[in-house]
Amino acid sequence: MLKIFIANGSISLASLILLEEVGAQYEAMLIDFSRDEQRQNAYLEINPKGRVPSLVTEEGVLTETCAILVYIAQRFGPEYLASMGDPFLFGRIQEFNSYLASTVHVAHAHRLRGTRWVSDIASLEAMQEKVPEVMTQAVTLVEDEWLQGPWVMGETYTICDPYLFTISRWLEDDGVDTGKLPRILEHRRCMMARTATQCALSQMN
Ligand SMILES: N[C@@H](CCC(=O)N[C@@H](CS)C(=O)NCC(=O)O)C(=O)O
Which residue, of 80, 104, 137, is where some domain finishes? Predict the structure, then answer.
């Protein structure tokens, strides 16, 4: 059976939601960040990066949300979750998810994980101060240019949706005025109405 390592409030929610969406059999393993469990040897043996999510499959461990979402979609289907048979649509889906991974998630990490990049207090504070502005720019692009509604790619729910939903739950704490993002708020509402989302959330804080 698949095993997924997750942590409260983390990006691992996206993969957990998708596992629920496809009805996969899995065991969820909660890593406690407050105890630094992600940096302990037992977990580093599974994922030397010390991050979540990690998905333990029969063939080996997969990390990185972008990769895990595609794996779950490809293994369990339905096909429209990632539209891999349509090179352009699959490219669009990967374009969106890569933007979330490489730009939006990283901008968010500057608030709580700034010590990855700098050590002195003044630099840390300067990075944190910039988070509301950078995150607002990043998600305004999603709001204006990407999110077609009701789902990111329009009428069809894809692997972009649990990913956007997970990041959109961080926005208020990141200092983003979500009142100016009606499409993202509506997307959040639609996601919350899904049983899979609720099942995933019930396993995390
Ligand atoms: N690019 C990775 C990022 C994973 C990541 O940074 N996860 C965070 C939680 S949102 C984490 O595990 N942080 C633990 C730490 O920094 O100690 C992905 O998308 O899966």
Answer: 80
